[in-house]
Amino acid sequence: MEPRIVFLERDSVKAAFSRPTVAHSWVDYPDTRPADVVERLRDAQIAVINKLRIDAAVLAQLPALRMIALAATGSDNVDLAACRARGIVVSNVRGYADTTVPEHVISLMLALSRNLMAYHQDVRAGRWPQSRHFCFLDHPIRDLRGATLGLVGQGSLGGGVARLAEAFGMQVLWSERPGADRVRAGRVAFGEVLKRSDVLSLHCPLDASTRGMIDRAALQAMKSSAFLINTARGALVDEAALADALRQGLIAGAAIDVLSAEPPPSDHPLLAPDIPNLIVTPHVAWASGEAMAAMAAQVVQNIDAFVRGAPRNCLP
């Protein structure tokens, strides 16, 4: 039987998807509400998703489903245990964002350290023509060279950030997992990384051990001059605590590409207009044209491999 493939979030990826080489049928939906997931996947053998949640209750209503092809690396939106119990293969894409995410992180570091947003806003508001000198220096500017970068997560994305940061002359600290019983060779205890870092960047998966790891206590442990960058998962950070920390000056600034709810509600704590020194981008660190094209190709390769009986990039 030809597998029926249903892509529930086609417009979440601005790249062309080739079609699998095996015989199949393919249905695209530009976007899908959670309430419509079961109906749209009812007769599908393969689901292609990006960030839609597929949990045990949904899977129980989809007896035909045999594979979930993630158009993403992270899998915290899929109940992997329920998939294992039902014999459903879950494959993700890997390595496609190894350039785009590190470049986005460095861009955010530079924007914070050089106060680019504040200067841009001041110029747009007419501040420069009013200056008594050729420039105006209303906001401090710091170099990355010589600064200490703490990285939480030593996968390919963290490694890519480390390589770029070292090219700028930064010192890199690799954090041990929060709450770890011992510190592995080449790592530094999480609490020590918080205290020593001028920039802290998160690149770890979201799970029970990392959820809310950047809470008020962690923010209080950081330097008052430090910056926080999160391009991993929004729920790694206590977002209300971060908003308060920025208002109170506990840290110097933050740049966030991910939120715990996406799209966020209009009253999300990190969307409040009074938070100083905060940059929020709408989960686009992964989304260079080159990266999206590579990701789309991998999704189709994963589907082809599954249908041939040799699934790849399978999640446990």
From TrEMBL:
Q: Which InterPro entries match?
A: D-iso_2-hydroxyacid_DH_PdxB, D-isomer_2_OHA_DH_cat_dom, D-isomer_DH_CS, D-isomer_DH_NAD-bd, NAD(P)-bd_dom_sf
Record key words, sorted: NAD, Oxidoreductase
Q: What's the superkingdom here?
A: Bacteria
The D-isomer specific 2-hydroxyacid dehydrogenase NAD-binding domain sits at: 106-285
A GO molecular-function descriptor: NAD binding
The D-isomer specific 2-hydroxyacid dehydrogenase catalytic domain sits at: 26-314
Q: What protein family does this chain belong to?
A: Belongs to the D-isomer specific 2-hydroxyacid dehydrogenase family.
What is the name attached to this protein's record? Answer: D-2-hydroxyacid dehydrogenase
